[in-house]
Request: fold
Amino acid sequence: MKLLGIDFGLKNIGLAIAEGFLAEPIGAVKSARAVQRVCQEQGIEKIIIGLSEGKMAQKTRAFGKRLARETGLPVEYQDETLTSEEAKELMVKIGKPKKRRQKQADAIAAALILQRYLECQNKNFQNQQSAP
Reply:
């Protein structure tokens, strides 16, 4: 199944793709329409959106409902706690220039969100297999 991971932000929407067990950052876009285009072009079958807390969580859920309605794809949410900070730290560690960090950090955060989702799914599957 081909999945799209999203790090939703008010300025940028980070995107990552997974087909299998590894999430890969693909970039950042500015609008829901651009996300729809990526879904069509890439043959996405499910969307995973990082979910924070508070008011941003409400905006993220509204965005998710809109995407589900407009794409016809299932949308699930994954906790995104500290993924943006983790992505920025990775960018600093690998020496990316400050100007290029933000857009790439959004995509990397999306990949971290999607990777966490994949790991949770794998763990749930393994637990089901080992249950008597």
Observations:
- The mean pLDDT is 87.
- The longest strand covers residues 2-8.
